[in-house]
């Protein structure tokens, strides 16, 4: 039984190390990704702070940082819970090993004492030679030999148990250190969240002092969005008519049909239209981050990114329109069969109408928005249907 237990301990330590490594690697990989995202947000915020006035963009970046910070805390908490489970498993195994060791030591002590009482070699010989037959003498001889062998095996088992206990204690020490370090990170992250929330509250308070002026600008923005959506719907209808369609569906050439099918197959896999950034306003109806009574309807997603960032095509297609829209600067529309992708707020254009573009090809450069960074409004349409672009992009 003791041999089996020690074999099981070796198996446990191997499987523990493997599963622990796998689980911790997954958690660390996620944490590293979140840390990179937070580092990028810090750069955006640092740039936004150069504008001394309070801006919606600052609030938006801080809110995103808080969201990512909470993700980090949850991940770190999962790590602590996992470590607690491993610590309990190790402590349970350690307790069993210590019980086995104590029992083996007690048994070995008794055996040594009994051997000591019969330590006289002549007594053993007399006991063997006093046998009534050769078979009995041989049996008594084998008995003393087996006692000696068993004693050696007991010593080996005690040594193996000591080795197992050393390994378990080493793992426990490692786990306890990791748990302590992770708990410290959680505390630090919580303190950081409090500081960031206080900073956001300060900006919000300043913005509310300018409520009348900001609401006026928001009303203009809402009207511009509605006007742009209507212009886009008209443009889509005109293009459908030009294609020879008798309804609102764009009539495809065989080549366009292939592109359209490929685009559809890549739902959830398309590259982002900028190298880095975050979704500061989602698709559909959004509550304003400062003025909660205001609701903004977004026909796409708004991505906050670095100042003057390059914009890239998310899929191969043909540039069907380049136009200037007040409040949105230059807008580029790329057709991918039945699908359209729309890129707004470009200050420079690298392509022209009729050009064929490839995946990740640069099509323009973004204007600098209020807050000292840049924002891109990105839309996806299928004929006259307005789609949620985030569902088409690869998860970031």
General description of the model:
- The protein has 396 residues and is an alpha+beta fold.
- The protein folds into 2 domains: 21-243; 253-395, Glucose Permease (Domain IIA).
- It contains 6 helices and 12 strands.
- The longest helix is centred in the middle third of the chain and has 76 residues, at 134-209.
- It starts with a helix and ends in a 9-residue tail after the last strand.
- The mean pLDDT is 84.
- InterPro entries: Cell_wall_metabolism_enzyme (IPR050570), Dup_hybrid_motif (IPR011055), M23ase_b-sheet_dom (IPR016047).
- Residues 298-389 form the M23ase beta-sheet core domain.
- One of its GO terms (molecular function) is metalloendopeptidase activity.
Short description:
With 396 residues, the chain is α+β, with helices and mostly antiparallel strands. 60% of the residues lie in helices and 17% in strands.
Total number of domains: 2
Largest sheet: 10 strands, antiparallel
Provide the β-strand percentage band. 15-25%
Q: How many distinct beta strands?
A: 12
Shape: elongated
> Helicity level, as a percent range?
55-70%
Secondary-structure element string: HHHHHHEEEEEEEEEEEE
Rounded to an integer, what's the Rg over CA atoms? 36 Å
**Distance, first to last CA:** 53 Å
Uncertain residue segments: none
- Annotation field: number of helices: 6
Q: Structural class, please?
A: alpha+beta
Mean pLDDT metric: 84
Organism: Butyricimonas faecihominis
Pfam family, one: Peptidase_M23
GO molecular function: metalloendopeptidase activity
Keywords: Coiled coil, Signal
